[in-house]
C-alpha cells in the first residue's frame, strides 16, 4: 500500500502558490521575477511543479532586441490591374493598326511613379511611365493576345492583367483594286 501511495505521489504534479512580480522597463520590455522590483505589480500565480525526473521545457531567453513581429513595416498594397477595353474576344476594325487600351488599377494608381509594360503576343512592345490609357500602333491584322503589367519605379511587377484575345481587321489594298475594276 505504501508503494502505491509513493508511486501516486511521484506521478501527480505538486501545486503551490507563488508571488511573481511583473514590470515594464523604459524600452517597453516586460520583465517577470520572483523578487520585488521598484514599480513592479505583484501577481499570485498557481504554479505546477512537474514530478521529479520529468523533462522540463527550456525556458525562453528574454532579450531586449525587438522581434520580427515588433518591427513595423508598412504592408505592401495588393494591386489589381484590369484591362477594361477592348474586351476579350472583341473584333476591331482599324486600317492604321491602332489598338487603344484602357486599364484600371485597383485599389488606386500608385502615387510614387509606375510603369505600364505592354505585351503583344507575349512580346514586350513598350513600357510607358506614369501613363494610362495606352495605345498600340502599327499592329498587323490578325489575332493577338494583349496583356498589361503594372511595375513600380524599380521595375518590380506589382500586378498583371488577364491576357485577352482581340481580332484586328484592316481593309485590304487588294479589295480596293477589285472595287475600282468592277466600278470602271
From TrEMBL:
Pfam families: DUF4124 (PF13511). Residues 7-60 form the DUF4124 domain. Coiled coil: none annotated. Residues 1-16 form the signal peptide. The keyword Signal applies. Keywords: Signal. Residues 34-73 are annotated as: Disordered. Residues 64-73 have a biased composition (Polar residues). It comes from the Bacteria. InterPro entries: DUF4124 (IPR025392). This is DUF4124 domain-containing protein. It comes from Pseudaeromonas paramecii.
Amino acid at each position: 500500500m505504501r508503494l502505491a501511495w509513493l508511486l501516486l505521489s511521484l506521478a501527480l504534479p505538486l501545486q503551490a502558490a507563488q508571488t511573481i512580480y511583473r514590470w515594464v522597463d523604459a524600452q517597453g520590455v516586460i520583465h517577470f521575477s520572483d523578487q520585488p522590483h521598484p514599480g513592479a505589480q505583484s501577481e499570485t500565480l498557481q504554479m505546477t511543479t512537474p514530478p521529479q525526473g520529468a523533462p522540463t521545457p527550456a525556458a525562453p531567453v528574454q532579450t531586449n532586441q525587438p522581434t520580427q513581429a515588433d518591427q513595423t513595416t508598412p504592408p505592401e498594397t495588393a494591386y489589381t490591374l484590369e484591362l477594361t477595353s477592348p474586351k476579350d474576344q472583341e473584333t476591331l476594325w482599324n486600317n492604321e493598326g491602332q489598338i487603344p487600351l484602357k486599364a484600371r488599377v485597383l485599389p488606386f494608381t500608385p502615387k510614387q511613379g509606375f510603369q505600364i509594360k505592354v505585351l503583344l503576343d507575349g512580346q514586350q512592345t513598350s513600357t510607358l511611365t506614369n501613363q494610362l490609357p495606352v495605345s498600340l500602333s502599327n499592329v498587323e491584322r490578325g489575332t493577338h493576345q494583349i496583356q498589361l503589367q503594372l511595375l513600380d519605379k524599380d521595375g518590380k511587377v506589382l500586378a498583371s492583367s488577364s491576357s485577352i484575345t482581340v481580332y484586328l481587321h484592316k481593309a485590304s489594298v487588294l479589295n480596293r483594286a477589285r472595287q475600282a475594276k468592277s466600278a470602271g
